[in-house]
Amino acid sequence: MQLRADLLRRLEEGEFRDVFPGEHDLVAEYQVSRHTVRESLRQLRAEGLITAQRGRVSRFTTGRPLEQAVGAPYSLFRSVEEVGAVQRSVVRALDRRADGVIAVRMGLEESTPLVYLERLRLADEEPLAVDRVWLPADIAGPLLDVDFTRTSLYDELERHCGTRITGGWERIRAVVPGPPERLLLDCPPTTALFAIDRLGRDAGNRLIEWRQTLVRADRFAVAAAFSDSDYRLGAPAPAL
Asked: Residue ranges of the HTH gntR-type domain (predicted)?
């Protein structure tokens, strides 16, 4: 416990931003047994604070799980940046397509063209989430020419399309990842995911976003404020 606490202290002081010391280095530095070092590292990995892969140097992740405040629109891009990590996205798809099921959820005709964006979201080059978004093409068409590697969808939506998300609803639930998601997000065997479904509206009350996000539960947390007279997680989501 003392070793783990001191390692966390040094992390918070910015000492391990690039490389985390190996087992032998820690044994020599702290003059403790290898078993003590391994147990400390095991706890840090279980909490999602450190990663270690075969053939790669161990390193800290973003330090603490990202935290989403309930009751307000949030941006995963900004959440990553706020904890001092570097956000990068690998764009897996960005195209124009029709999806009858999604269109109906947005109150549109089944044949309505949609802009579809799928990204693998990284924090300090570590997999964090898979993000899939659908938007009406008549609004979001200009986004087809945007490079989403290091930018926020909401920023680009406002910049190029003149609109932004001001409200809506979302559902957050825990899911067990399947083999494709586990491989894509580099999930340890015991790590679950949060599945986040979001329907977003603009200031004119138009439904302009349907989003499905799978985020590693060891790197993401949900927070709510409360008092002795109020505790509200939000309104019930509409039936899908």
From this structure: 1-64
| pTM strictly above 0.85 | no
Which CATH class name applies to 1-60?
mainly alpha
pLDDT value of residue 235: 46
Q: Can you tell me the distance from the alpha carbon of 207 to that of 44, in angstroms, rounded to the nearest whole number? A: 42
Q: Are 44 and 4 in contact (CB under 8 A)?
A: yes
The confidence band for 18, taking pLDDT boundaries of 50, 70 and 90, is low
Other Cβ atoms closer than 10 A to 30: 16
Q: How many whole angstroms separate alpha carbon 200 and alpha carbon 75?
A: 12
Into which CATH architecture does domain 66-223 fall?
Answer: 3-Layer(aba) Sandwich (3.40)
pLDDT at 147 over 60: yes
Domain locations in the chain as residue ranges: 1-60, 66-223
